[in-house]
Amino acid sequence: MARFKIPVFYFLCFTVIGFASFGCSSTTFYQQNTTEQTPQGEPIYSVYLIGDTGAPSIEPQEPILGVLEAQLKRSGEQSAVIFLGDNVYPDGLPPKQSPSRAQAEKRLLTQLKIIDDYPGQVVFIPGNHDWASSEKNGLKQLRRQEKYIESYLNRGNTFLPDSGNSGPVLLNLATANTHPDINFDIQLVAIDTQWWLHKHEKPLWKNVDSANQQKEKILTKLEEMITADLDAETLVAAHHPLFSFGRHGGKFPNSTHFLPPVFGSLYVAYRNIWGYPQDIASYSNLKEGMLHSFKDKPGLIYASGHEHSLQFIPYLNGSRQQYHLVSGSATKPSFVKKGSGDSFTYRGKGFITSTLL
Fold it and tell me: What's the maximum distance between 2 C-alpha atoms anywhere in the chain?
């Protein structure tokens, strides 16, 4: 049975620099060069994962968006593209009367135009900046962005979860009925992790009394969705990573410890142990809860953005081999530590593609 190549990394231009096998899966790494190569074999279905697209170059076009546009044209309807949050920097889409509205629209439009004629599936997921960087007006900013994106694309429900709700939301990307070359389902589970972290107004489910009560139900529902079809390929997409070799994971350049001495080390320790509100250390309850919900699903892929780098992190969840992908460097790269073991990290602009061959 064919299975996803987990993952294929695409940067500005491509050349193969390494190859490694992980059980029945394989990984191919690409980095910038003057030639282009693609994985061997004819792709059956591809999922493009790109995050933190919110600060693109407008004129000229952001180079990585041009690369993505070319890849989407080749893949056609046998593919999907998922934008992993922080779709507009710095604070989502402001109201029309705001002086920053015009710039925010330009940043959205430069992303939306590359999928004007794209026949595959499109999904936008929100990040913390789309929620107005966790400020009080976050829900309004988010809903305004959702309305703008779906109105422009005019292709139905493309912003998930809906209207500031937490999710999870289950979407079948491909099934054996719709794709004759596939004899299993490819499922996307979308969840808004910023809903979990947001401390201001946010919608609650019916018959739920508090955000804490809903958090328990979110994790239960997430586990039910994931385990309903253990034979399906399942991709969980959210904005916040659960593991990271970047700053949100408490990893910093060695020079940070000496800027200034002692206090630099205390700063690194703080980010590791307690963390800023958007650091993994600060949302350990979300991390542990989600990992528990994933525990029975072999081969699960968890895709996120947030960190401005590309990362591939295999993770053995109990006896289940799973894969954590971080794809948050569409428009701004930042520090990432070299991955350990079978992990792979890259500091540079790019995105990730999981391809079924």
Answer: 62
- The region of weakest confidence among 21-25, 26-30, 240-244, 328-332 is 21-25
What is d(CA 202, CA 211) in angstroms, rounded to the nearest whole number? 9
For the packed helices 211-227 and 284-294, what is the interaxial angle rounded to 10 degrees? 30
Q: What is the CA radius of gyration of the chain?
A: 19
Distances (CA, A) of 221 to 131, 151, 229, 230, 293: 23, 30, 14, 15, 9
Question: Buried b vs exposed e over 19-43: b needs ≥16 C-beta within 10 Å?
Answer: eeeeeebbbbbbbeeeeeebbeeeb
Mean pLDDT of 242-256: 92
pLDDT at 17: 25
Q: Give pLDDT tens digits for 195-217.
A: 999 999 999 999 999 999 999 99
Can you tell me the distance from the alpha carbon of 269 to that of 315, in angstroms, rounded to the nearest whole number? 24
b (16+ CB within 10 A) / e for 90-117: ebbbbeeeeeeeebbbebbebbbebbee
Tell me the backbone φ, ψ of residue 234, rounded to 5 degrees.
-120, 125
